[in-house]
Design brief:
By secondary structure, this protein is mostly helical. It has helices spanning about 1-10, 25-50, 50-70, 75-100, 100-125, 125-130, 130-135, 145-175, 175-180, 185-205, 210-225, 230-250, 260-284. Helix 4 packs antiparallel against helix 10 (about 185-205). The longest helix is centred in the middle third of the chain and has 30 residues, at about 145-175.
Length: about 280
């Protein structure tokens, strides 16, 4: 796996961009080419399920996960991933068992996670300074281990979408009808929450907690303006997400701009959304 990723990273050197000469830039581009299709695909389902707030709750759990990892002596990245998945499953469990609406269940878990994270950070002196990288993200410092994990997650997500796209679409349109047709809605709800939580945690690494939701929501919202079908929305979302990731990274590395890579990626995606609004208005 590591040698394949290294070869893919070297292959990116043929691109005619001077900013890609440093290896860390090519690795960051490869990481975005793996991450943005995942956020774009899941973003379509997040939009259809109206779960944008879910990604915020899971993303903010990164603080608590990292803080717990540092205090317990566990690797912060591993603690963040495990804690994020547990929070995602907890949100789904509260929603299904309490009968509350999705935004109410997510709001309760969101409040608990943020308060817990702040309490843990406030008790450990000096811990707050180490949390900055998770607040703002930094795709330029992604390591070989994280690249391998991204590649594995990318393969698993493709398998998940191949098996679950039609089922999740049916559940988004009508959960009752989906159950009548034999779809195990509880299983797919929990699986979707776990997969989404994993992707959100990697997005935190790339663009930070503050901008992570944008990677999920903006490409999907843009696709909704441009597409005429659910399938079209899927592919438009991937195009917008991948192009925003690549263009944002390349633009951020230009001397005349020199901005944070994560923020620039999100700004390019927002520019896509502005164009899509014009296209939608023109069609009417």
């Amino acid at each position: 796996m590591t040698s394949l990723l290294a070869a893919a990273c070297d292959a990116l050197s043929v691109l005619p961009f001077e900013c890609l000469e440093p290896r860390f830039m090519r690795r960051a581009l490869l990481a975005l080419l793996l991450l943005t299709p995942m956020t774009s695909m899941l973003g379509v389902q997040v939009t259809l399920f109206r779960m944008a707030f879910f990604s915020d709750a899971v993303g903010h759990s990164a603080f608590a996960g990292v803080a717990l990892g540092l205090i317990l002596g566990a690797p912060p990245e591993t603690a963040m991933l495990v804690f994020g998945v547990l929070v995602g499953i907890a949100v789904m469990a509260v929603q299904r068992s309490s009968g509350l609406s999705a935004d109410t269940a997510i709001g309760i878990i969101f409040s608990a996670v943020v308060a817990f994270g702040l309490a843990v950070v406030s008790r450990a002196s000096g811990l707050g300074r180490q949390m900055g990288q998770f607040l703002y993200g930094d795709i330029l410092t992604v390591g070989d281990g994280e690249m391998a994990a991204l590649a594995v997650l990318f393969g698993l997500l493709l398998l998940f979408e191949l098996m679950g796209w039609n089922r999740l679409l049916a559940m988004a349109l009508s959960p009752v009808t989906a159950r009548v047709e034999g779809i195990h809605t509880a299983f797919w709800n929990y699986l979707f929450a776990a997969v989404l939580a994993l992707v959100v945690m990697f997005s935190v690494r790339a663009v930070g907690v503050l901008l992570m939701t944008a990677l999920l929501v903006v490409p999907a919202a843009t696709a909704r303006n441009l597409a005429r079908s659910a399938g079209g929305m899927f592919w438009w979302s991937v195009v917008v997400g991948v192009s925003s990731g690549a263009a944002g990274l390349l633009l951020s590395a230009q001397e005349w701009l020199a901005t944070a890579s994560g923020a620039t990626v999100v700004l390019v995606a927002c520019a896509w959304f502005a164009v899509s609004c014009v296209v939608r208005a023109w069609r009417k």
